Amino acid sequence: MVDSPRLSCWIGDPGASYVYSRVRFEPRPWPQALAALRPRIDAAAGVAMNSVLANLYRDGRDAMGWHSDDEPELGPRPVIASLSLGGTRRFAFRHRHDPARKHAIDLPHGSLLLMAGDTQAEWKHALPRTARPVPARINLTFRRILPSP
Ligand SMILES: O=C(O)CCC(=O)C(=O)O
Ligand SMILES: [Mn+2]
């Protein structure tokens, strides 16, 4: 159990375990709805995903702080496909070495954001809290965990 301002679940193929914020997650098996989505995500991303981190943001107080998805098991230039469902939330980027460089994008229901290339190496991202009333939101980040050596 980890205290965090959202509810999270790690899903994936057997062995696609993942260390996130120093906690190791062993994946739960794919539920049918996500197994059905997977080939469409793979086609859009051009990568065979083997796992997905599901996050539920119950309201505007739930959030995710600044981070990069740069864990070694993702490899140096990971492709991460982020599917958003439910309430629109703002997603923010900040350059790692030049925090004055910032971008933000609203992620509406049904949107698929692809992060690729040097995005994780050069940028951090966050899902800030908001004081506006917002409906619940689910975010699914499909990832490819590389086999451990
Ligand atoms: O909820 C989001 O849009 C971002 C989620 C995220 O950055 C992550 O799961 O690593
Ligand atoms: Mn992330």
Automatic annotation (TrEMBL):
Enumerate the UniProt keywords alphabetically.
Dioxygenase, DNA damage, DNA repair, Iron, Magnesium, Metal-binding, Oxidoreductase
Question: Which Gene Ontology biological process is one annotated for this entry?
Answer: DNA alkylation repair
Q: Which Pfam families is this protein grouped with?
A: 2OG-FeII_Oxy_2
Q: Which cofactor does it need?
A: Fe(2+)
Fe2OG dioxygenase domain boundaries: 48-146
Q: Does the keyword Aminoacyl-tRNA synthetase apply?
A: no
Kindly give the InterPro entries that the UniProt entry links to this protein: AlkB-like, AlkB-like_sf, ALKBH3, Oxoglu/Fe-dep_dioxygenase_dom
Q: Which PROSITE patterns match?
A: FE2OG_OXY
A molecular function (GO) held by this record is: oxidoreductase activity, acting on paired donors, with incorporation or reduction of molecular oxygen
What this protein is called in its record is Fe2OG dioxygenase domain-containing protein
